[in-house]
Design brief:
The complex is a heterodimer of chains A (324) and B (248). Chain A has 324 residues and is of the alpha/beta class. A seven-stranded parallel β-sheet of chain A has the order 7-11-6-1-4-5-12, sandwiched between helices. Chain A has a five-stranded parallel β-sheet with strand order 15-14-16-17-18. Chain A has a three-stranded antiparallel β-sheet with strand order 8-9-10. In chain A, a hairpin with a 4-residue loop joins β9 and β10. The termini of chain A are far apart. The mean pLDDT of chain A is 96. By secondary structure, chain B is α/β, with parallel strands linked by helices. Chain B is built from six helices and 13 strands. In chain B, α2 packs across α5 and α3 crosses α4. The N and C termini of chain B lie far apart (55 Å). Classes of the chains: A alpha/beta (324), B alpha/beta (248). Bound molecules: flavin-adenine dinucleotide and adenosine monophosphate. Adenosine monophosphate binds next to α1, β4, α3, β6 and α4 of chain B.
């Protein structure tokens, strides 16, 4: 048996999810006596691919083409489906990133595979993979299995830990997949980076602010704390709707789903739609002046107090800890 | 232009999850259902597209009789015609997509709008599945859309930025918050919607590919620790995060 692990790269660099996917594939493979094949798609990427061996890939296939430099839904999905067919893999893992969520359904149709999306846990029971996925804004967990011959799983980023590489590298095989004009029916022409800031969907630490901060100018305090922790700034919908913060910072049901190691919710009440996006964070800290705010019901640590006093004090303590 | 928009009927977000007797589904008793919030954005974009090019907007939903409420809401927003693809059984995204793709083929749309995800199961797959089944290009998580003749220039949201995507009609678009502000149905729209017929079609159902063994409630989190009630607690909080949680 083989598990194909899709290792996402952008600009010739692996996303953190690439290591998570390969490692999760390896952990699963050990239980079903399978081998992990990693696939990397892009341009000039073979040179970075060998390191996937350190996370459990026993082989890496790099598909390189100048036209694959930027993402194309149609071309990337064809490439991955072709590799899965050539390798006769029964199982395919993708990250549930914007790229992974975009191609996984298309690959599923091409391979006539069932797709379990956004999984947060995988177990093996009698040789079958059982996946768990949060539903109803995190208020339920669904245990599912895929019944088709080929099975596809997308895994929520930041949930499966990659750990450290064991230091080994593995041979990279470059492979050509024939691509025609029709395979580029959808192409990315340009990527606009968001002012070099960290995205909440990828950050390991997030400090989010809510309506209790009273105005956009007071987010400087949130930015300071996030900056000192090397994290990203997030926001509740209330402040995004008010135009205080850009939509790409919104965490929650109609924003982004995040699972950082540390989520600090500042002056956010903790409405169910907000919790939907962040309740799978490993540690949650709530700073709110209302002891009864629902955010405290999911928080590991809380301070019931005025954010305007508490946040600068925390930032100062963090800097002290860092010896600054 | 023939514009098609697919909408899902989902429990509202305040719903308390109660597991049904078979242990696999939500117990629908007392649950309020609504038009999936992302699909509201899809409907709005469909209506805007019609304003730009003329033509008609058909809204369709696959499910039971109750999905008609959601179809009425879309009619009240201004869709021309509604179709219920009747299927009372519970299906996975693949089976739903297959029913939707059959209808889309029959209708022959120039552009098909979906929401980026249903907020019940957060699957984010039906749009991509239907597009592939139809052999159409698809652009997902769109926050900006420009249609110019048959050409599409769209902006989709990705981690840390936006991608500018080019493609051509006919195509599938899945919508993300930020693309537009969905309109409220006008009183006249609501009255008109009551009179507009909802066409019903039976679909050829296919088997699900994902099998649910259980719907569970997540284990309740142990009560957190209130570290303090003012700024003097900051030092202790930082110590706990550093020494106990080991996250900073
Ligand atoms: C379909 C739908 C989708 C939604 N999607 C999302 C989503 O994706 N993300 C999201 O966040 N919301 C979402 N919402 C909105 C959600 O229901 C809440 O309205 C929103 O999260 C509230 O934001 P808030 O916590 O910032 O504001 P509020 O609820 O107004 O809370 C402000 C908090 O600040 C506290 N506070 C005030 N002053 C201070 C101070 N000086 N110091 C400390 N604390 C203070 C208050 O005690 C209060 O708890 C959605 C709603 C719907 C209906
Ligand atoms: N039963 C359904 N009927 C019509 N459209 C649907 C249905 N289920 C999902 N969709 C559409 O597919 C999108 C993505 O859904 P999902 O893949 O379930 O997250 C939704 O936003 C809807 O536009």
């Amino acid at each position: 048996m083989k598990i194909l692990a899709f290792a996402e790269q952008r600009n010739g660099q692996f996303k953190k999810t690439a290591f998570e996917i390969v490692k999760a594939a390896k952990t699963t493979a050990e239980k079903i006596n399978a081998e992990v094949i990693a696939v990397v798609v892009g341009n000039n990427i073979a040179s970075i691919a060998g390191q996937l061996g350190g996370y459990g890939a026993s082989k890496v296939i790099a598909v390189e083409d100048a036209r694959l430099e930027l993402y194309s839904t149609s071309a990337y999905s064809k490439v991955v489906a072709e590799i899965a067919k050539q390798e006769s893999t029964e199982i395919v893992f993708f990250p549930a990133s914007e790229l992974g969520k975009d191609i996984a359904p298309r690959v599923a149709v091409k391979l006539q595979a069932g797709l379990a999306a956004g999984c947060t846990a995988l177990i093996v029971e009698n040789g079958t993979i059982k996946a768990t996925r949060p539903v109803y804004a995190g208020k339920g967990l669904l245990d599912v299995s895929v019944t088709t011959g080929i099975k596809i799983f997308t895994l929520r980023p930041n949930v499966f830990t990659a750990g450290d590489s064991n230091g080994s590298t593995v041979a990279v095989e470059t492979r050509k997949i024939e691509l025609n004009e029709i395979d580029f029916a959808v192409v990315v022409k340009e990527v606009k980076a968001a002012r070099g800031k960290k995205d909440v969907a990828e950050a390991d630490i997030i400090v989010s602010g809510g309506r209790g901060l009273k105005g956009p100018e007071n987010f400087a305090m949130i930015e300071d704390l996030a900056g000192s922790l090397g994290g990203a700034v997030g926001a509740s919908r209330a402040v995004v709707d008010a135009g205080w913060r850009p939509h790409d910072e919104q965490v929650g049901q109609t924003g982004k789903t995040v699972s950082p190691s540390l989520y600090v919710a500042v002056a956010i009440s903790g409405a169910v739609q907000h919790l939907a996006g962040m309740s799978s964070s490993k540690y949650i800290v709530a700073i709110n002046k209302d002891r009864d705010a629902p955010i405290f019901s999911v928080a590991d640590y809380g301070i019931v107090g005025d954010a305007f006093e508490v946040i600068p004090a925390i930032t100062a303590e963090v800097k002290k800890l860092q010896g600054k | 232009m023939k514009i098609l928009v697919f909408v899902n009927h989902v429990p509202d977000t305040e719903t308390k999850v109660k597991v049904s007797a078979d242990g696999k589904l939500i117990d629908p008793a007392g649950v309020n259902f609504m038009l999936n919030p992302y699909d509201e954005i899809a409907v709005e974009e469909a209506l805007k597209t019609k304003q730009q090019f003329t033509g008609e907007v058909v809204v369709a939903s696959l499910g039971g009789e109750t999905n008609k409420e959601t179809l009425r809401k879309a009619l009240a927003m201004g869709c021309d015609k509604a179709v219920l693809l009747k299927d009372a059984a519970v299906r996975d995204s693949f089976a739903v997509a297959s029913g939707l793709a059959d209808y889309a083929k029959e209708y022959g749309a120039d552009i098909i709008f979906f929401g980026k995800q249903s907020i019940d199961y957060d699957d984010s797959q039906v749009g991509g599945l239907v597009a592939e089944m139809l052999g159409m290009p698809s652009i997902s998580v769109v926050v900006k859309l420009e249609l110019n003749g048959g050409n599409i220039i769209a902006e989709r949201e990705i981690e840390g930025g936006h991608e500018i995507v080019h493609s051509k009609l006919p195509a599938v678009i899945t919508t993300q918050k930020g693309l537009n502000e969905p309109r409220y149905p006008s009183l006249k729209g609501i009255m008109d919607a009551k009179r507009k017929p909802i066409e019903e079609k039976t679909i050829t159902s296919v088997a699900s590919r994902v099998e649910v063994s259980a719907l569970r409630k997540p284990a309740a989190k142990a009560a957190g620790k209130i570290v303090g009630t003012d700024a003097s607690a900051a030092a202790e909080l930082v110590r706990l995060l550093h020494e106990e949680a080991k996250v900073i």
